[in-house]
Amino acid sequence: VEAVVSDARTYLSNPPDTPFDMIVFGLLDSHTQVSGMTSLRLDNFVYTQESFAQARDMLDPNHGLLALSFSAGYFQSPWTLRRVYRMLSESFGSPPKVMFTGYDAGVLFLSGPAARNHSFFEGDDFKFLHQAALKLFDPSEAITEPVATDDWPFLYLKHRAIPLEYWIMMALIATVSGAWVILVNRKQRIGGLSFHFFLLGGAFLLIEVRNLVAFSLMFGSTWQANNLAIGGVLIMILLANLVASRVRSLNPHVLYIVLLSILVAGVFVGPDSFQGLSRGVRLVIVPLWLSIPIFCAGLVFIRSFTRTVYTAGALGANIIGGICGGLLENVSLALGIQSLQFIASALYASSWIAMPRHADSGAQPDGGRDAAATG
C-alpha cells in the first residue's frame, strides 16, 4: 500500500501508469461533520462530471470497480442522490448499482465493468440492501436537476440560481455600504463617485475569485492554492509598481487592449490546458498566466491614480467597487464560474470607457500622488 496525502481531485488529475482495480470515494467530512449552513465546502470538484470521468479512465477496463459512498440524510435532500446517480450513469454509460450502507443514511453507488457482470448483484443480500436504498430516493424519478461540473461544482444547490438567503445578505451588505458612503460623503464632501476606479475594483475582485477557483482545481483545495493565488497578486502588484516607476509614459489604451485580449484568451486557454506539463512547470506557468491580467490592471490603476486630484475619493470608489465585485461573485451560482471572466472583462471595458480623458487639475487635498496599485 502506498499512502498519498493530497487533494482528492488533484490526485485524480494525475493518472498512474497502471489502472486501478478499485477506486473508492468515501464519505467526506462535509457530509457528516460540517453544517449545511456553512460556506466551507470540502468536496469542491470531487463530485463533478469531469471528476467521475477521470476516475473511470483510471479503472481497469475489464474488471474495474468504482465505489462511491454518499450521505444526504434521511429524506432531507433525495435530489442530491438522484444527481449523483445521473452523473455516474452518464459517465459510465450505464446506471450504477445502489445499496444502503446503514451508516449516516449513506448510499453506496457501484459503477464500472465489475458492477455490470458480477454474480453478487444477483443474490438476496444485494437485493435487500438495494430495496433499503430505494426508501431514501427513487432513481426512476425524472431528474430535472443539473449535473455538477467543473464550471458549476455546486453539488448542494438544487438549481442554477442564487438562493434567497444570498439575496438577503447581498441586499443587507449593499444597503449598509451605500448608506455609509452617503453619510461620509455628506460630511467630508469628497465629491461624486469615480466610476473608473469603482469598475476597476469590481473587476479586480472577480479576477481574484476566478484565480482562487482555478488554483483549487489545478493544485487542490488546500492552503497551497490560496498561497499561489494571493502570492501571484502581490508579485504582480509589485512588478506593476516597479515598471510604472521606470516607465513614465504608459499608454492606457495599449494596456487595456492587452488586458482584455488576455482575458478573452483565458476563456479558451484555461488551467486544464497545462495539465500535461509536470507539476513543477505548472507551478510556474499557471500562476503566471492567471496573474498577468492583474499586472496590466495594476498599471492602469497606477496611471489613473497618479493623475487624480482626489486620491481619497478614488481609493474609496475602488474599495466600494471591490465590495460590489464580491457581491457579483454570487452570479456564478446561477451562470457558472466561467461567467466571472466575462463579467470582469465587461467591467474592465466599462472602466476604459469611464476613464478620464484629461489629467485632473487643481490643488491636491490628499497630500501626494505616489501610487500603489491595488485594483
Summarize the structure.
The chain has 375 residues and is mainly alpha-helical. The protein is built from 14 helices and 4 strands.
Considering the chains and any ligands shown, give keywords for the structure.
single chain, 375 residues, mainly alpha, four-stranded mixed sheet, 4 strands
If strands are numbered along the chain, what order do they take across the biggest sheet? 1-2-4-3
Count of individual beta strands:
4
Q: Tell me the structural class.
A: mainly alpha
Number of helices: 14
- In percent, how helical is the residue content? 55-70%
Which percent band covers the strand fraction? 5-15%
Arithmetic mean pLDDT:
84
Main sheet specs: 4 strands, mixed
Flag low-confidence runs.
360-371
Structural Rg:
25 Å
Distance between the termini: 49 Å
* Overall 3D shape: elongated
Order of helices and strands: HEHHEHEEHHHHHHHHHH
Explain this structure to me?
By secondary structure, this protein is mostly helical. The chain has 14 helices and 4 strands. Helix 8 packs antiparallel against helix 14, helix 10 packs antiparallel against helix 11 and helix 10 runs antiparallel to helix 14. The chain starts with 7 loop residues before the first helix and ends in a 21-residue tail after the last helix. About 3% of the residues have low confidence.
